[in-house]
C-alpha cells in the first residue's frame, strides 16, 4: 500500500496534468466571478473522471477507491472547489450504480458518467445537518408515485445539476424510516445561490420540494434503506474530500517553495533561513502522514475491511485538518502577498476551510472513531 503501481502513478499524473491545464489557469477568476465551468467538467468526464468507481458496463471507469484518492488529490492541485464538486458528482453516480436496479442504472449512469447530466446529493436540511437521521422531508406513497415535500440545504451543484438523489422520510422510525429517491431537475425549485467564504466556483442552493411527484420506479433501493445508502455513499465521499484537502495544501506548499526560493530578505533567499526550512519540513511531513492514512482507509474500503468506516472517518478528519493547517501556514510564508487574490493562496485557504465541515463535520468524525474504539452504539 505504500508503493504505487506504474498504472496508479499514471492515474495521479493524468489528474495533475488535467488540473494544471484546465483548472489552474482560470481558478482565481472562476472563484471571483462565481462561475461554474460545466464545459470543463465535461472535459474531465472525457478522460474517465465522471464515473471514477462506477462499473464499466454503463460507462464508468471501474477504478478503486485508492485510484480515486489519487485522482481527487491531483484535481485539487488546480482547484479544490471543482475537485470537490466532482467528488460529490461521483458519489451520486456510485450510489446509482451500487444500489440502483438494472433499469435505473441503464437510464441514469451513461449521462452521469459522461457528465451530460450532473449529479447532486440531497441529505442535509435546515434543521438536520450532523443529525441526518432527524431529517423532515417527507415522501408519501400515492399509487405509482411518491409525493415529496421538504427543503434541502447546502446542496452543491443545485440549479445546474440535472439528477438529484434525495433522502426523504417514508416512516416515523428515525433513520430506518428514510428512503432514497432519484429526482430530475424539472420537478424541483431552488433558493438563491448562497454567498460563501469559499467553493465559489460551484453553486450552493437550497433544493425545494413542493408536492413533487416521483415515480416509484425512481426509488433507489427499498423503503427504509435510504439512511444506509446515504452513509455508504459518505464513506467514499469522506475519502475524496480528504484527498481534495491534500491536493489543495500540496499546491499551496509547492507555491511556497517557489516563493521562498525567489524572494530575498537580509541579503539572502528566504529559502536559506533555517526557521523557514523547519516550517516547510513540518508541512511536508504532515501532508505525507495524512496521505498515508488516507491511502490506508481507501485500501480498507476497497477490501471491505470491518474497520473501513472508522478508518474513513479518521482519514477525513486528519486530512482535512492537516490540509487547512498547511494552506494557512503557506499563506503566512507568503507574507502580504499571500493575502492577495492573484497569488491563489488565499483562495486555497478559503476553499479548504469547508472541508472540515462537509461530508460530516470533523466533530462527527471523532464520534465515529470513538464509537469504533469503545464499541459504543
Strand and helix layout:
Layout: H1 6-23, H2 27-33, H3 38-46, H4 65-76, H5 80-99, H6 102-114, E1 119-122, E2 138-142, E3 145-156, E4 163-169, E5 178-184, E6 189-190, E7 204-215, E8 219-220, H7 226-262, E9 264-265, E10 268-269, H8 274-302, H9 308-333, H10 345-353, H11 362-374
Parallel strand pairs: 1-4
Antiparallel strand pairs: 2-3, 3-7, 4-5, 5-8, 6-7, 9-10
Helix pairs in contact: 1-4, 4-5, 4-7, 5-6, 5-7, 7-8, 7-9, 7-10, 8-9, 9-10, 9-11
Describe the protein.
The chain has 377 residues and is α+β, with helices and mostly antiparallel strands. It has 11 helices and 10 strands. The chain has helices spanning 6-23, 27-33, 38-46, 65-76, 80-99, 102-114, 226-262, 274-302, 308-333, 345-353, 362-374, and strands spanning 119-122, 138-142, 145-156, 163-169, 178-184, 189-190, 204-215, 219-220, 264-265, 268-269. Strands 1-4-5-8 form a 4-stranded mixed β-sheet. Strands 2-3-7-6 form a 4-stranded antiparallel β-sheet, with no helix packed on it. A hairpin with a 2-residue loop joins β2 and β3. The longest helix is centred in the middle third of the chain and has 37 residues, at 226-262. It is globular and about 80 Å long. 50% of the residues are buried. The model has no long low-confidence stretch (mean pLDDT 96).
Amino acid at each position: 500500500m505504500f508503493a504505487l503501481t506504474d498504472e496508479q502513478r499514471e492515474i495521479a499524473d493524468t489528474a495533475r496534468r488535467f488540473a494544471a491545464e484546465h483548472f489552474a489557469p482560470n481558478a482565481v477568476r472562476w472563484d471571483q466571478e462565481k462561475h461554474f465551468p460545466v464545459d470543463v467538467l465535461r472535459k474531465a468526464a472525457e478522460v474517465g473522471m465522471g464515473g471514477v468507481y462506477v462499473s464499466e458496463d454503463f460507462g464508468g471507469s471501474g477504478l478503486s477507491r485508492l485510484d480515486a484518492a489519487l485522482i481527487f488529490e491531483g484535481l485539487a492541485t488546480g482547484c479544490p472547489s471543482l475537485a470537490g464538486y466532482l467528488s460529490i458528482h461521483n458519489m451520486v453516480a456510485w450510489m446509482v450504480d451500487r444500489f440502483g436496479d438494472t433499469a435505473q442504472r441503464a437510464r441514469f449512469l451513461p449521462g452521469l458518467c459522461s457528465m451530460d447530466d450532473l449529479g447532486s446529493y440531497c441529505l442535509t436540511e435546515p434543521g438536520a445537518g450532523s443529525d441526518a437521521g432527524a431529517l423532515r422531508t417527507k415522501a408519501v406513497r400515492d399509487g405509482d408515485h411518491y409525493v415529496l415535500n421538504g427543503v434541502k440545504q447546502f446542496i452543491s451543484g443545485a440549479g445546474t445539476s440535472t439528477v438529484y438523489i434525495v433522502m426523504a422520510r417514508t416512516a416515523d422510525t428515525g433513520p430506518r424510516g428514510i428512503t432514497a429517491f432519484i429526482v430530475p431537475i424539472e420537478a424541483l425549485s431552488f433558493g438563491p445561490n448562497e454567498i460563501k467564504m469559499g467553493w465559489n466556483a460551484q453553486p450552493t442552493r437550497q433544493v425545494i420540494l413542493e408536492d413533487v411527484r416521483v415515480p416509484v420506479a425512481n426509488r433507489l433501493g427499498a423503503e427504509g434503506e435510504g439512511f444506509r445508502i446515504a452513509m455508504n455513499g459518505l464513506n467514499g465521499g469522506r475519502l475524496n474530500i480528504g484527498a481534495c484537502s491534500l491536493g489543495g495544501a500540496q499546491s499551496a506548499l509547492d507555491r511556497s517553495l517557489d516563493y521562498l526560493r525567489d524572494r530575498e530578505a537580509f541579503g539572502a533567499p528566504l529559502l536559506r533561513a533555517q526557521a523557514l526550512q523547519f516550517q516547510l519540513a513540518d508541512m511536508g511531513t504532515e501532508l505525507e502522514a495524512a496521505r498515508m492514512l488516507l491511502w490506508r482507509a481507501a485500501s480498507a474500503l476497497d477490501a471491505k475491511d470491518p474497520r473501513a468506516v472508522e478508518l474513513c472517518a479518521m482519514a477525513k478528519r486528519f486530512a482535512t485538518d492537516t490540509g487547512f493547517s498547511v494552506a494557512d501556514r503557506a499563506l503566512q510564508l507568503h507574507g502580504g502577498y499571500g493575502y492577495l487574490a492573484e497569488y491563489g493562496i488565499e483562495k486555497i485557504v478559503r476553499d479548504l476551510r469547508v472541508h472540515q465541515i462537509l461530508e460530516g463535520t470533523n466533530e462527527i468524525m471523532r464520534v465515529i472513531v470513538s464509537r469504533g474504539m469503545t464499541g459504543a452504539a
